[in-house]
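Good morning N.,

You mentioned wanting to compare the apo and holo forms, so I went ahead and generated the holo version with uridine-diphosphate-N-acetylglucosamine. This is what I fed in:
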Amino acid sequence: MDKLLIEGGRRLSGEVAMSGAKNAALPILCASLLTAEPVHFTNVPHLNDISTMLRLLGDMGVGVTMEGADGLVLNGGGLNNPVASYEMVKTMRASILVLGPLVARGGEARVSLPGGCAIGARPVDQHIKGLQAMGAEVTVEQGYVHAKAIRLKGARICTDMVTVTGTENLMMAACLAEGETIIENAAREPEVVDLANCLISMGARISGAGTDIIRIQGVDKLHGATHAIMPDRIETGTYLCAAAVTGGDIRLLKTSAAYLDTVVDKLLDAGCDITVERDAIRLVAPPRLKAVSLRTAPYPAFPTDMQAQFMAINCIADGVATIRETIFENRFMHVNELMRLGANIQIEGNNAIVRGIDRLEGAMVMATDLRASASLVIAGLVAEGETVIDRIYHLDRGYERIEEKLAKLGAAVRRMH
Ligand code: UD1
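and this is what came out, ligand included:
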């Protein structure tokens, strides 16, 4: 199992390009299931989660062809096996995103239930409820969701809570349903909008993506298209935090601050100087950051996927920060690991109180989930001495060539096999 070895204390500086967004690419690749024509994608990130999704789609009969450095062509013409096995879904929860498109196009899907997850229970009841409202017959047997429908029918669906992949699954299913579907309480995440834009270029009739009411007029079929995946706002935010904590000065390329308002605001509050360009962001950090409190909530509020990284920067900031997690019930697993580096953090229910200290000290730590791993990297970059992060397969799920990109910015980072 690979480990990451970080020699802390180097100031990050220079430029590096950001990759396409994992959380946009995963649903968008599933959109290829909705048509028998080839769909071309660019700016696809090289990540383990993307490879897992391509294996899953390939198993179903979708043709997968690489095109250039970050391009892909998916051809759903040969779709013949509408099954997502437990083996696939257990490694990547986002596999549930095949459910809606499969039922909509082929009338049937068998998808394993995701089961438990390190950061919380994460059920898929809303995905199922929505498909049932569209007329699908859904049974759950032996750990599999089995959904069937001759043709889905448009429906009015109001999800009990804001769910990102739930909204995406139902939006994709509704594209080929008969009549109009209205999704209320829809997720407003930029990745939902990117998916909607891809579906629209495939011939779907969607309005309202990016608001909490999405309307979809079903069509008989979708066609091939070309779509560039949006930049990864969470990768971007993570590198901004890494620069902020090391007193750095970096410019991130091929990205946008457009979807990072709350993250940029918090970094400004922490004392950073940020310049926003059309396709780039520059951050210049102060000698010491100020503590910043935050509360996670669905977009456009502060993203839960940036909570752990801000926990790390608060560990050595000046002052006390309260971090409140409202999306997932068990998303503080990085706390114990950060404390191994010397951090002073106290958990009270879904609040973490972080008292900033002057220095962290390198240690052996263990990555527990994707964003928790990112917080350990950030802490390792500023800790004195050597930090070794174990189980970095979590990082490889969501950060493309992280050690290479950090090294380009001057960090002393090495992967050990
Ligand atoms: C997506 C993101 C993930 C991010 C999360 C919240 C992808 C591939 N993943 O995950 O990185 O952390 O949004 O921004 O885009 N819930 C239910 N029933 C459901 C669906 C959700 O109870 O049917 C609950 C979940 O347990 C959670 C909350 O709703 O507490 C939000 O989850 P959701 O938005 O669905 O997260 P994901 O789409 O899985």
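DSSP finds 14 helices and 24 strands in the chain.

Happy to go through it together on a call whenever suits you.

Best,
F.
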